[in-house]
Amino acid sequence: MIYTVTLNPSIDYIVHVDQLTIGDINRMKSDLKLPGGKGINVSRILQRIDNTSTALGFLGGFTGHFIKEWMEKETIKTDFTAIQDDTRINIKLKAAEETEINGLGPDISEEDMASLKQKLSKISPEDVVVLSGSKPASVPTGFYQTLIEVIRDKGATFVIDTTGDDLMDSLAKEPLLVKPNNHELAELYNTKFNSIEDIFPYGRRLLNEGAQHALVSMAGDGALLFTKDGIYQSNVLKRPVKNSVGAGDSMIAGFVGNFTKSHDPVEAFRWGVACGSATTFSDDLATKEFIYELLPEVKVTKIV
Prior knowledge:
With 304 residues, the chain is an alpha/beta fold.
């Protein structure tokens, strides 16, 4: 079983306007409400590529009810921890440029956190747990590390997709996969990249510090996969770009979903690129049909 953990889910309220004028009344061209949160996105894509997952995390209020109902409609298993506060709403405002206004997140009690840990304690050594996204402000520093200890105590494997200290502190625990983008990786090691080659020593450093595999996404330059056997680069698929939300989560879902079956990181990388690209070219997360359409176009080359 693959489990996903989303500590700070949301409703993503996507609003399209022809032109945004600050300080004036603006009329929507269209709008869309979707379940949001990185782990939730991973579960939704896993379902579309025929992988079963169980979504964990904190949900509360009418917004939480919306997310839970949506997941059930997509026949995704859930075991969320119910909280008192409402789950947040994030606004994705799409005009000439894309603007995001993200909610603060709810208060999470000690009892809520204990409940989530208890749910995770039921996993088995064959399971993979995907830890994704930010924490609500009320969740203490180091909570991801607490969850990782629960996972490791059960002999299970974990993937972590976050930034900063939470990512750095997880490396020694040997995550199956980490996935910073090039900007996040540069920030992690307090450097900057002027070329793809500049990224190589820092991707290797992620492995040297404990990660089993590292994916580094580079937007219009494709993505890199770092493994103990070498460095691989994907090509860049060409379609009109519609959506930046959930592409990285889709990449993780594609990689993990395939890797749990094939145990081949290069083939899993190909699936990750197909899923991530398909979401980038879609209004919502990618459909199964679109992922399978793009998969034959993905080419992976060993470059080092």
